[in-house]
Amino acid sequence: MDVSEAIEERRSIRKFKEDPVPKEKLIDILEAATLAPSGKNKQPWKFYIIQGEKRSEMIQAMERGMNRLSKMGIKTGSAKLTLRVMETAPATIFVFNPTSKHPLLKRDTLEVYSDIVDIQSIGAAIQNMLLKAFDLRLGTLWICDVFFGYEELCEWLGEKGQMIAAVSVGYPDVSPSARPRKPVETVTEFLGQP
């Protein structure tokens, strides 16, 4: 598939068919992720693939976190809708930076800079995952609402590193149209003359 076509045609999918995703395709997606550029070639990523009966445990952990935050008066916004997507997606891939720590813990300046570089690297890895999945005729949803269950999900996974995001994967059961984008001219400034 042409890269431009993949970038232009890929959509966030929020409804999946029940069909499981073959392990080989999940491995292909993660191999694409690991080919992403990374600052100092640190390759600061670790992946957990949640499938089958483990999905209900994942949902329970996320719900515990959302309930904890609700009791504190923190609104969880769209997380309930995202939770339903995660519940029905055949696979969800959690993406961690195993060399970093909880985002709210105190850091010195060098740790902050290192985290910023690592998060950009991991963002590139996630984008590679989305494009490879699209190439394999799979749908994806890049999920940051997992932060509403951060502690509970990390504890459930037994992971002490920094959770960055999750990506739900499956065969799309919807075909959403493109969402509006800001024109390049409104988000770009050219400085200097060529």
Q: Do you know the CATH topology?
A: NADH Oxidase
- The unreliable regions are none
State the order of secondary-structure elements, H for helix, E for strand: HHEHHEHEHE
Q: Report how far the terminal alpha carbons are from each other.
A: 34 Å
Structure annotation, total helices: 6
Named CATH architecture: 3-Layer(aba) Sandwich
Strand content: 5-15%
Task: Report the strand count.
Answer: 4
Largest sheet: 4 strands, antiparallel
User: How are strands sequenced across the largest beta sheet?
Assistant: 1-2-4-3
- Tally of separate domains: 1
CATH superfamily: NADH Oxidase
Radius of gyration: 18 Å
Structural class: alpha+beta
Mean pLDDT across every amino acid position: 96
Please explain how this structure is put together.
The chain is of the alpha+beta class and 194 residues long. The chain is 42% helix and 14% strand. It has a single domain, classed as NADH Oxidase, CATH 3.40.109.10. The protein has helices at 3-9, 23-34, 54-71, 79-88, 109-135, 150-157, and strands at residues 46-51, 91-97, 139-143, 162-170. Strands 1-2-4-3 form a 4-stranded antiparallel β-sheet, with helices on both faces. The longest helix is centred in the middle third of the chain and has 27 residues, at 109-135.
